[in-house]
């Protein structure tokens, strides 16, 4: 009998199931688990956005939208990028996607040939690595744990020197998942100079752009527009993860090519959900600001509480994650540590090693959950540390 599992695309064998989702499923066996795991806002979608989706259904927006998205959504997204970040794209340069996830896959599928190099500053969300493996790219992880969890021009220059014109994609996610680190515009400008006018695309994943606590949002697309593909969306800023609407913006000549791949991956996105996303981009600035204020309060509490317990904590400048080093005297194997924490005190956090190089010995805490839950989780973590610390 033929074993058909041996005849999948070769890259599939290199893709592992998500350790984050596997652990979330495992820890859910405890009914009282306090979850600092999945990055999903605990807020409800604002009422005026829900109303827009309902109106779309009532108005019989039940047919295929244009593959690149409704005209209203693309116009609203272009206005949002210009109004909020001084990033200027025509509506025709924007594609509505099935979340940032589909956008990432579309970019990888459209650009990468086998053997091309993708550079990732790590620690980073592992999705990019899986998508690149499917396209048989060579993934180069640059460990930033010794450089403040930021990619430096020298590190990028070393990659250019080694891989030359094979360096096809640089992935830049900021504010960064899992560390919450943000780059300044000057830092991004310096990185852009290294690859300017080279055959290298920059994938600017800016899905957390509205969650910047200490500074104005910066974008590498401002310093390298012709080579940049910008991803954004409504999931994190307006608690719309289930609506599955992202946006992808790039110069027209790039958008035209990306659109060819996008239309065959997903055809188009649900029309009423695009109506809701249009409303978020047009009239949701206050909602996003209110959610950011709540996240900042949670960040400040969790940062101080974990520091007091003995964690070495990176104070996040954005997103809703805290990156903390396991205290000395505890199990330094982060992948084992998180299961011990879940089993003993019913608290779920993510192991740093799940986020590639530089994450070993670290933990990611998502504070996209209610403050009362965070306080209960901290109380349990403190108990765990006191009971398990050894000399």
UniProtKB/TrEMBL annotation:
Keyword field contains Transferase: yes
Per UniProt, residues of the Aminotransferase class I/classII large domain are 32-381
Sorted alphabetically, the keyword list is:
Aminotransferase, Pyridoxal phosphate, Transferase
User: Annotated Gene Ontology MF terms?
Assistant: transaminase activity
First-tier enzyme category under EC: transferase
Required cofactor(s) = pyridoxal 5'-phosphate
Family annotation (Pfam families)? Aminotran_1_2
Under which EC number(s) is this enzyme classified? 2.6.1.-
The gene for this chain is araT
Q: How is this protein named in the record?
A: Aminotransferase
| Organism from which the protein derives | Lactobacillus nasalidis
Which family does the similarity line name? Answer: Belongs to the class-I pyridoxal-phosphate-dependent aminotransferase family.
Q: Which CDD domains match?
A: AAT_like
Q: What is the lineage of its organism?
A: Bacteria, Bacillati, Bacillota, Bacilli, Lactobacillales
Which InterPro entries does its entry note? Aminotransferase_I/II_large, AspAT/PAT-like, NHTrfase_class1_PyrdxlP-BS, PyrdxlP-dep_Trfase, PyrdxlP-dep_Trfase_major, PyrdxlP-dep_Trfase_small
């Amino acid at each position: 009998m033929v074993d058909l599992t041996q005849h999948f695309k070769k890259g599939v064998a290199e893709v592992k199931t998500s350790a984050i989702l596997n652990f979330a499923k495992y820890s859910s066996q405890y009914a009282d688990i306090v979850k600092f795991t999945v990055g999903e806002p605990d807020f409800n979608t604002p009422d005026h956005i829900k109303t827009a989706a309902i109106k779309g259904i009532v108005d019989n927006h039940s047919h295929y939208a244009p593959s690149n998205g409704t005209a209203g959504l693309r116009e609203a997204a272009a206005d949002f990028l210009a109004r909020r970040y001084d990033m200027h794209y025509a509506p025709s340069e924007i594609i509505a996607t099935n979340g940032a996830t589909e956008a990432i896959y579309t970019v990888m599928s459209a650009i990468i040939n086998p053997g091309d190099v993708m550079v990732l500053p790590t620690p980073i969300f592992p999705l990019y690595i899986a998508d690149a493996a499917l396209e048989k790219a060579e993934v180069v992880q640059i460990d930033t744990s010794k450089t403040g969890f930021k990619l430096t021009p020298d590190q990028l220059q070393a990659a250019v020197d080694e891989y030359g014109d094979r360096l096809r994609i640089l992935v830049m996610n900021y504010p960064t998942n899992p560390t919450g680190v943000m780059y300044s515009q000057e830092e991004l400008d310096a990185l852009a100079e290294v690859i300017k006018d080279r055959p290298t695309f920059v994938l600017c994943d800016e899905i957390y752009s509205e969650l910047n606590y200490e500074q104005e949002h910066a974008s590498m697309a401002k310093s390298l527009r012709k080579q940049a593909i910008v991803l954004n969306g409504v999931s994190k800023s307006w608690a719309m993860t289930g609506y599955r609407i992202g946006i992808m913006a790039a110069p027209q000549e790039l958008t035209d090519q990306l659109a060819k791949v996008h239309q065959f991956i997903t055809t188009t996105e649900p029309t009423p959900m695009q109506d809701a996303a249009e409303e978020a981009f047009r009239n949701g600035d206050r909602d996003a600001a209110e959610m950011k204020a709540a996240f900042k309060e949670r960040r400040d509490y969790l940062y101080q509480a974990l520091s007091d317990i003995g964690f070495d904590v990176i104070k996040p400048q954005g997103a809703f994650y805290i990156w903390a080093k396991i205290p000395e005297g505890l199990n330094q194997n982060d992948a084992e540590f998180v299961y011990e924490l879940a089993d003993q005190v019913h608290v779920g956090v993510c192991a740093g090693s799940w986020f590639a190089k530089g994450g070993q010995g670290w933990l990611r805490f998502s504070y996209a959950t209610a403050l009362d839950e965070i306080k209960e989780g901290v109380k349990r973590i403190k108990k765990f540390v006191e009971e398990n610390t050894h000399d």
